[in-house]
Design a protein that fits this description.
The protein has 498 residues and is α/β, with parallel strands linked by helices. It is built from 18 helices and seven strands. Helix 3 links the parallel strand 2 and strand 3.
Length: 498
């Protein structure tokens, strides 16, 4: 066997082993969740304080013409003593959103709502910069933040603010729900992904004493905690993750309220989804570069350091998946030529470790989120894994940009206010920037199509189910990126029903 062949095989199995490590991390989250499940998260303070503290609600928006009016109207209906509540619309928009938001603010202000419209012409620091500027003008002891695609429930403050009564809690995060879960295959998959993040990851991390993060929206901060942790900083694309880790490194306590739910709109178009994923992946690696050395040098328990490392570097798995995609074909060809057909059984445990861990993770999360309907959602797991593979080109680019220090501007995720077919015209007004990524995604789909044929000819049938996941994922994401068509799966009257 040549040196090049040996190198290929060593690289291939090294990547498989690393992916299995991140797969095992999923099992760890499931284990921790159920181990500490009885340690329920609930506010420690009084359910009804004698005096409600002053709260400032911040609404950062940027070119959100289809949802900004809904957001403002919803927040103005939140049940809280009017003299103890102020609302800030932090608008960085450059389109029709400015006029829509300003008019909505004036209308609600005339009705007696304490609401301010703050518009920046320069987007210094992007969302973090807007939050920072709003904070300078805020009078609230507590700061609640909602992105443009959210519809917070009326009682959200009355259910969360008591959690600060013990004086130790710095931030409270609520769980996201999904307004348009059943709109399409893509939204079904996203909903399951986010459910896993909030229920399994947040639940496991919080209850077991590990670090977890504010998700940028649908959460409330103690203002003094933001200041003590160094405030909003602009050197990462995930200012929420960055601030969360800086605060917890100082010993600040966070609270996750799984039973308090804030509905939001999921991206219905694949390029919007990719933009969101790119920002999250790049920002997490930027945060890892910035703060992981501090985490590792700290006096935190080893278990906390280990979990924080896996948490902050988790998106490197996408880069590993892309490497696996490239190395898989040569690895198979080399072993076929060397007559090592039996060696393919070595791959199986690693591949199963990745797929079974993901399946277990999301099945368990759906059982917790929806005990009545989780069985009906299992059918989406193959699509979830395929789409997760399909976006690895997009997310690998994000990871490499973060690792090399390549800076890009904050890319918004378009929100369309779409929950049924009637909203499709709104989507048409936003045009995604064309990139070379779909060409590479389709090339990889072709690559795996050839590989499936090659394995079938050589009777390596055990590999074909896994190869189909790669083929379908790259094909779906590549075609969807070039010809996006966010068409609903179901009748609009069925939205929100199971």
């Amino acid at each position: 066997m040549s040196f090049l062949s040996i190198t290929y095989l060593v690289l291939y199995f090294s990547v498989l082993i690393l992916l299995a490590v991140y797969g095992a991390h999923r099992f760890l989250m499931v284990y921790l969740y159920y181990k500490y499940k009885r340690r329920r998260t609930a506010p420690k303070g009084e359910s009804t304080p004698v005096t409600w503290p002053v709260v400032t609600i911040q609404l950062p928006v940027y070119n959100e013409q289809y949802v900004v009016e809904r957001l403002i109207a919803t927040v103005c209906k939140i049940s809280y003593p009017p003299d103890r509540l102020e609302i800030q619309v932090l608008d960085d928009s450059t389109d029709e959103t400015t006029a829509i938001a300003n008019a909505a603010v004036e209308r609600h202000r005339s009705e007696g709502v304490d609401i301010q419209y703050i518009h920046r012409t320069e987007r210094k620091g992007f969302k973090a910069g807007a939050l920072e500027e709003g904070l300078e003008k805020a009078r609230g002891e507590f700061i609640a933040i909602f992105d443009a695609d959210f519809i917070p429930p009326e009682d959200i403050l009355k259910r969360t603010i008591p959690g600060f009564a013990d004086g130790t809690t710095a931030m409270i995060q609520t769980r996201w729900d999904h307004l348009n879960r059943r709109y399409s295959l893509l939204t079904q998959v996203q909903a399951i992904m986010l459910d896993g993040h909030f229920v399994m990851e947040h639940g496991a991390r919080h209850r077991s004493g590990r670090f977890f993060n504010f998700n940028g929206t649908a959460g409330i901060w103690r203002r003094s905690s933001i200041d003590a942790a160094g405030g909003w900083q602009h050197d990462t694309l995930t200012e929420d993750l960055d601030l969360s880790y800086r605060a917890q490194l100082m010993g600040q306590q966070f609270l996750f309220l799984e039973d308090v739910v804030s509905p939001a709109e999921l991206p219905v178009e694949i390029n919007a989804f990719k933009s969101q994923q790119h920002r999250w992946a790049k920002g997490s690696i930027q945060t890892a570069r910035k703060l992981l050395p501090t985490v590792l040098r700290s006096e935190l328990p080893f278990r906390v350091k280990l979990e924080a490392t896996l948490h902050l570097t988790n998106n490197i798995a996408y880069l590993l998946m892309l490497m696996l995609s490239v190395l898989m074909f040569p690895s198979i060809v080399i072993r076929v030529r060397e007559g090592w057909i039996s060696s393919f059984w070595i791959d199986l445990p690693f591949l199963l470790a990745a797929t079974v861990s993901i399946s277990t993770f999301y099945i368990c999360s759906q059982r917790e989120v929806s005990p009545q309907h989780w069985l009906g959602r299992i059918k989406y797991l193959p699509f979830l894994m395929s789409i997760g593979i399909g976006i690895c080109v997009n997310n690998s680019k994000a990871v490499l940009e973060a690792l090399t220090g390549y800076w890009t501007e904050f890319q918004r995720t378009p929100k369309f206010g779409i929950t049924d077919r009637r909203g499709r015209r709104q989507w048409m007004s936003y045009h995604s920037t064309r990139t070379w990524l779909p060409a590479l995604e389709l090339l990889l789909a072709f690559h795996f199509g050839l590989l499936i044929y090659y394995t079938a000819v050589n009777k390596i049938f055990s590999s074909i189910p896994f190869l189909l996941l790669f083929f379908a994922g790259y094909l779906y994401v590549g075609i969807g990126s070039l010809w996006p068509n966010p068409r609903p799966l179901l009748d609009p009257d069925m939205q929100g029903k199971e």
